[in-house]
From TrEMBL:
Residues 253-295 are annotated as: Disordered. The lineage of its organism: Bacteria, Bacillati, Actinomycetota, Actinomycetes, Micrococcales. InterPro entries: GDSL_Rv0518-like, SGNH_hydro, SGNH_hydro_sf. This is SGNH hydrolase. It comes from Sediminivirga luteola. The keyword Protein transport does not apply. Residues 17-198 form the SGNH hydrolase-type esterase domain. One of its GO terms (molecular function) is hydrolase activity. Pfam families: Lipase_GDSL_2.
């Protein structure tokens, strides 16, 4: 099957990220104090784009787009974001999605996997290098521990798809450092800045074909809390994070409804912008930052 695809680009001079909140960058705040940017995030994909400007497989003139939108299911990612990525014709596409599907009670992992495989085949036929990502190990996440087996099956299918179609895989399940609470934000659903930085380093290592920088020992669980403190903290988490999430599921709405991609065009990444998302921030139709858009 691999012989049916065009050769992969020798270097990555353009990169487009597809996906949901993970690739949009929640909860890794974008730098700066612009009040219009308070709900904008940096994330591992922005950080990877920065890394690629200094990597031997990348380019100082790397162009980057990010079409990921929080809350998106895999079908929406494929229907809405994939066609735009094909129009942009990047050298690399990261396609990481399906997590929002897997946590739903009636998730069909086989159907998800078939949809993902079709998307990967479409990208590979266009001569695009593809980076997939597994789901996280939810063993230490009480709310999602029940779907751990489902995520494991989906991960196995992701590895098979990657092998069949010549894609790279970011093995999030195996990053043991992410099994502790340190790299997760207060909502327990999204990574902190340190978590996104860790993932970006892993992704670069995968693309460069070198040994992975992490996979060390998991962070030990935090010490037991006094009962009163635990009740107060768990009650606050349910009220501020879990209840709104469940409410959106019941109403059939998403946190990403009516949102636009944060970076819909391929834009040059400022190599000097280390520590900021692709320069001094993102750019979209609403405003400009440290990137220059190109067609």
């Amino acid at each position: 099957m691999l012989d049916d695809y065009p050769p992969l680009p020798e270097r990555i001079t353009s990169y487009c990220a597809l996906g949901d909140s993970f690739s949009e960058g929640l909860n890794d705040p974008a730098p700066g104090d612009d009040p219009e940017q308070l709900d904008r995030f940096r994330g591992w994909a922005d950080r990877l784009a920065e890394h690629l400007t200094q990597s031997p497989i990348g380019s100082p003139r790397l162009r980057y787009a990010n079409l990921a939108i929080r809350g998106r299911l895999l079908a929406a990612i494929v229907d809405e974001q994939l066609p735009r990525a094909l129009e942009l014709k990047p050298d690399l596409v990261s396609l990481i999605g399906g997590g929002n599907d897997c946590i739903r009670p009636k998730a069909d992992v086989d159907a998800l996997s078939s949809l993902l495989e079709e998307a990967v085949a479409t990208l590979r036929k266009a001569g695009i290098r593809v980076l997939l990502g597994t789901g996280f190990d939810t063993k230490h996440m009480p709310v999602f521990k029940a779907v751990r087996g489902r995520i494991g099956i989906y991960n196995a299918n992701i590895w098979s798809i990657a092998q069949q179609h010549g894609a790279d895989v970011l093995n999030l399940w195996a990053i043991r450092e992410l099994q502790g609470a340190t790299h997760w934000s207060q909502d327990r659903l999204h990574l902190t800045s340190s978590g996104h930085a860790l993932v970006a380093d892993e992704a670069l290592a995968v693309l460069e074909g070198r040994p992975l920088p992490s996979h060390g020992h998991p962070i030990p669980p935090r010490p037991p809390r006094p009962v009163r403190q635990a009740v107060a903290e768990e009650s606050r988490w349910v009220r501020e994070h879990l209840a709104p999430w469940v409410g959106r599921r019941i109403r059939g709405v998403s946190s990403g409804d009516f949102r636009q991609p944060k970076l819909p065009q391929l834009s040059f990444v400022d190599p000097a912008g280390a520590g900021s998302p692709a320069g001094d921030g993102d750019q979209d139709a609403a405003g400009s930052t440290g990137q220059t858009q190109t067609d």
